[in-house]
């Protein structure tokens, strides 16, 4: 597995490099966003780790540039406590995960591996899909179309949608979502489902403020509701 680290702080780059190489990853590093994008194009890593605050080109911009051409899982590094607004901003840029500096080795490795798992579909999910004429989800090709237009979903958003579709008509609790989508390491991150569901609704719902596909069961979880087949909603 190839990992690309983009961080302007040499001690952080070296520390993450050592942690990952000891875990058996093939690691590449870049000291700024421009160099990072160049390395990304040349090496095509399986996952990218990006510092948010960097000179010349910040991490969110780097993330956006990568998202324009690839669905590679992206983890953002933050030097301060992560708030919901930060996650929303990162999601809008195309990030999948946040982790706070200084990096704690065990948590970092666990979250990195969980992110890699989320980017891969299970055999059960590959056999499934959904199409009502307005929303078309092809789980085998990992493609989503809304009213005929292709929509980009991050690996985590796609995994979340796949889990909800797999249990369409059933309420999936927040804890179950955390375990199935993010992994058991995330069971205490109770704000994750709310933030990611909100972002997913913006991408697939005709009216995100009044969702028809992803319904909220207050204080319980979420339910995917299949809709009657339509030709198109104009």
How would you describe what is shown here?
This protein folds into two domains: 117 residues, Rossmann fold (3-Layer(aba) Sandwich), CATH 3.40.50; 102 residues, Winged helix-like DNA-binding domain superfamily/Winged helix DNA-binding domain (Arc Repressor Mutant, subunit A), CATH 1.10.10.10. The chain is 41% helix and 21% strand. It has nine helices and twelve strands. A hairpin with a 4-residue loop joins strand 7 and strand 8. Helix 7 crosses helix 9. It is globular and about 55 Å long.
Mean pLDDT: 88
**CATH class call of the largest domain:** Alpha Beta
Overall number of domains: 2
CATH topology of the largest domain: Rossmann fold
Distance between the termini: 44 Å
Poorly predicted sequence stretches spanning 5 or more consecutive residues: none
Written as H for each helix and E for each strand, in order along the chain, the element string is EHEHEHEHEHHEEEEHEHHEE
Backbone structural class? alpha/beta
What is the global morphology? globular
Largest sheet: 5 strands, parallel
At the fourth CATH level, what is the homologous superfamily of the largest domain? Answer: Response regulator
Rg over C-alpha atoms, rounded to the nearest angstrom: 18 Å
Output the number of helix runs: 9
CATH architecture of the largest domain: 3-Layer(aba) Sandwich
Helix content: 40-55%
Oligomeric state of the chains in view: single chain
């Amino acid at each position: 597995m190839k990992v690309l680290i983009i961080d302007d702080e040499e001690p952080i780059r070296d520390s993450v490099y050592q942690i990952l190489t000891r875990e058996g990853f093939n690691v590449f590093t870049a000291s700024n966003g421009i160099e990072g994008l160049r390395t990304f194009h040349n090496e095509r890593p399986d996952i990218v780790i990006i510092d948010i605050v960097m000179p010349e080109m910040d991490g969110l911009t780097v993330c956006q540039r990568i998202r324009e051409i690839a669905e590679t899982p992206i983890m953002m590094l933050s030097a301060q406590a992560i708030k919901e607004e930060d996650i929303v901003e990162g999601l809008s840029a195309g990030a999948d995960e946040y982790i706070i500096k200084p990096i704690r080795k065990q948590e970092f490795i666990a979250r990195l591996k969980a992110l890699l798992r989320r980017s891969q579909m299970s055999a059960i999910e590959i056999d499934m899909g959904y199409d009502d004429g307005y929303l078309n989800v092809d789980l085998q090709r990992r493609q989503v179309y809304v009213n005929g237009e292709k929509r980009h979903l991050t690996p985590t958003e796609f995994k979340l949608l796949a889990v909800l579709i797999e249990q369409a008509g059933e309420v999936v609790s927040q804890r179950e979502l955390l375990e199935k989508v993010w992994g058991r390491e995330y069971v205490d991150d109770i704000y994750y489902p709310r933030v990611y569901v909100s972002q997913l609704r913006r991408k697939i719902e005709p009216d995100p403020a009044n969702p028809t596909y992803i319904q909220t069961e207050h204080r319980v979880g979420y339910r995917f509701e299949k809709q009657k087949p339509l030709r198109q909603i104009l």
